[in-house]
């Protein structure tokens, strides 16, 4: 007996319900009911897609010795080979790829893994280390005055620090998302490595203490906050100085008077995570630069694993390989427009790269459920702020009344450059469709934001960066995502790929968005959007999409 009879639901209602069903047999019963009843093509496709996903998840990991490489994307190949330590298996994969799809990037991933496992062909031998000021004496070396660049090799690093941003007196959702993700990462980390390392939440601002209970509820073990009325608005220098002072407290390079603190006894954090918001991007770069480490910006995925590396610059010996432990793998969209890159921040001889730092695109992780029964240590961090950091005083400013959060909607209607023939009308038609739904809002592609389109005043207010969806905007996971006139570059895919159902409208059937849409309607958005609006208002969207799909 199935929990949901598909014949009793429209596709927009069925989508959110079906995504929680993990029993393939139950799904097949639902498919039989639909075929014997309404027999709607889009509903059957929805159920069949879910069956395929459930069965794929149930199959477990693929067997690299028998897998059909043609059925895998390059990203799938990269994920598979990183866990293979048998060079013979890797060489067999390489030969099969060369004889089949012969994809350059796939071959490169396999070859790189072979080198990691076996080491390079270079003659073994120690790589001579020469300090930069001796190797390039003719150059200015500003890091010469930074004793921590090479003065703390092999120092102790612990914990994952999360900068929790607040705006207009509220803890922003991405801060909660990062805390939830950090909680899961460190729970697994402690179990895998037999450690007891913490999630540390950092709060800075005029009302920092107001948010302590919230960050504990969302997963923090330790909360460090600094509160000062002058920090009401984000300021680059004081915010970065405060964060770095906190990070160095109790370590070898702690500020005077903070060499020993009772809440921290290590040099610097092992990992730091920041929101990829306007302020978060600025702060993350400033902090990681001051701490002399690296930063992977605009990440959409994080996990912690060991990594086998053979690069002589990292292992110190040509032809050798070394397994680095506890490496934060930071996934981000590839600027080349092809899949994802995974960034690693790895030490090398005579040089530590800690903290390993990342900024996270809002919406990348699930918003966790708060637990207000949780307990944590709280530190009111006292620090004298330099008056010189506040030489510029902002006497007057306007604050937006709300801001735009697209992540909580059942439906998102997004438009792209396809509105170019009549931009104002394009926005109007999209807003009409938004209004036809109960919980919906308008999204935009980066192409609309960066264009020189001229909009009439009554719609111009909707064309703001806050509505941008994609790598440098918001990530949304609505039940239904309608993409009108959007080509579907990888940067946009990042922002909507987790939607339950994606309906694309495009005049080009070969547009990239075809590859990750559930339905592609060939047509002009100026003709299709009004028709969809009429269908929604009549409660018949599923039928219209099915009709177009049949066409």
Automatic annotation (TrEMBL):
InterPro entries noted in UniProt: DHS-like_NAD/FAD-binding_dom, ETF_a/b_N, ETF_a/FixB, ETF_asu_C, Rossmann-like_a/b/a_fold
Pfam families, per the entry: ETF, ETF_alpha
Superkingdom of the organism of origin: Archaea
Ranges that cross the membrane: none
GO terms of biological process kind: fatty acid beta-oxidation using acyl-CoA dehydrogenase
Single GO MF annotation: flavin adenine dinucleotide binding
Biased composition (Basic and acidic residues): 99-116
Region Disordered, annotated ranges: 99-128
SUPFAM superfamilies to which the protein is assigned, alphabetical: Adenine nucleotide alpha hydrolases-like, DHS-like NAD/FAD-binding domain
Domain Electron transfer flavoprotein alpha/beta-subunit N-terminal: 160-392
Homology family: Belongs to the ETF alpha-subunit/FixB family.
Record-given protein name: Electron transfer flavoprotein subunit alpha/FixB family protein
Organism: Haloarcula salina
Taxonomic lineage: Archaea, Methanobacteriati, Methanobacteriota, Stenosarchaea group, Halobacteria
């Amino acid at each position: 007996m199935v929990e949901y009879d598909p014949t009793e639901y429209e596709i927009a209602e069925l989508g959110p319900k079906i995504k929680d069903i993990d029993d393939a047999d139950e799904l097949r019963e639902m498919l039989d009911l639909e075929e014997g009843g309404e027999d709607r093509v889009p509903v059957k496709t929805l159920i069949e897609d879910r069956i395929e996903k459930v069965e794929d998840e149930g199959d477990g990991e693929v067997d690299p010795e028998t897998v059909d490489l043609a059925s895998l994307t390059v990203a799938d190949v990269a994920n598979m080979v990183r866990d293979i330590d048998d060079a013979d298996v890797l060489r067999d994969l390489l030969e099969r790829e060369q004889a089949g799809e012969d994809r350059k990037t796939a071959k490169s991933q396999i070859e790189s893994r072979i080198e990691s496992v076996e080491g390079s062909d270079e003659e073994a031998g120690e790589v001579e280390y020469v300090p930069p000021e001796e190797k390039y004496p003719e150059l200015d070396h500003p890091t010469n005055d930074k004793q921590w660049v090479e003065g703390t090799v092999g120092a102790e690093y612990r914990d994952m620090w999360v900068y929790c941003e607040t705006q207009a007196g509220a803890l922003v959702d991405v801060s909660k998302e990062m805390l939830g993700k950090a909680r899961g990462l460190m729970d697994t980390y402690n179990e895998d490595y037999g450690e007891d390392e913490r999630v540390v939440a950092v709060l800075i601002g005029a009302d920092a203490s107001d948010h302590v209970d919230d960050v504990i509820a969302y997963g923090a073990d330790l909360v460090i906050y600094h509160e000062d009325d002058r920090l009401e608005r984000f300021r680059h220098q004081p915010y970065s100085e405060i964060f770095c002072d906190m990070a160095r407290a109790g370590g070898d390079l702690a500020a005077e008077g903070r060499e020993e603190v009772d809440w921290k006894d290590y040099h610097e954090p092992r990992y730091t995570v920041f929101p990829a918001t306007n302020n978060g991007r600025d702060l993350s770069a400033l902090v990681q630069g001051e701490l002399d480490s690296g930063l992977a910006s605009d990440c959409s995925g994080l996990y912690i694993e060991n990594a086998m590396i053979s690069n002589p610059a990292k292992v110190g010996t040509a032809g050798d390989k070394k397994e680095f432990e506890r490496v934060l793998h930071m996934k981000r969209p590839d600027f080349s427009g092809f899949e994802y890159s995974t960034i690693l921040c790895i030490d090398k001889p005579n040089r530590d790269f800690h903290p390993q730092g990342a900024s996270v695109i809002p919406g990348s992780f699930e918003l966790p459920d708060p637990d207000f029964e949780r307990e944590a240590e709280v530190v009111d961090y006292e620090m004298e702020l330099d008056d010189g950091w506040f030489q510029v005083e902002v006497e007057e400013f306007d604050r937006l009344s709300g801001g735009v959060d697209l992540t909580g909607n059942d439906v998102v209607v997004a438009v792209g450059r396809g509105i170019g023939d009549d931009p104002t009308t394009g926005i109007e038609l999209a807003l009409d469709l938004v209004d036809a739904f109960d919980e919906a809002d308008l999204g935009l592609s980066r192409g609309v934001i960066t264009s020189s389109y001229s909009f009439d005043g009554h719609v111009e207010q909707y064309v703001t960066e806050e509505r941008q969806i994609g790598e440098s905007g918001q990530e949304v996971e609505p039940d239904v995502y309608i993409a009108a006139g959007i080509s579907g570059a990888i940067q946009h895919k990042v922002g909507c790929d987790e939607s339950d159902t994606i309906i694309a409208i495009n005049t080009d059937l070969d547009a990239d968005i075809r590859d990750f849409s559930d339905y592609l309607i060939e047509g002009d958005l100026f003709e299709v959007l009004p028709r969809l609006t009429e269908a929604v208002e009549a409660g018949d969207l599923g039928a219209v999409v099915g009709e177009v799909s049949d066409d």
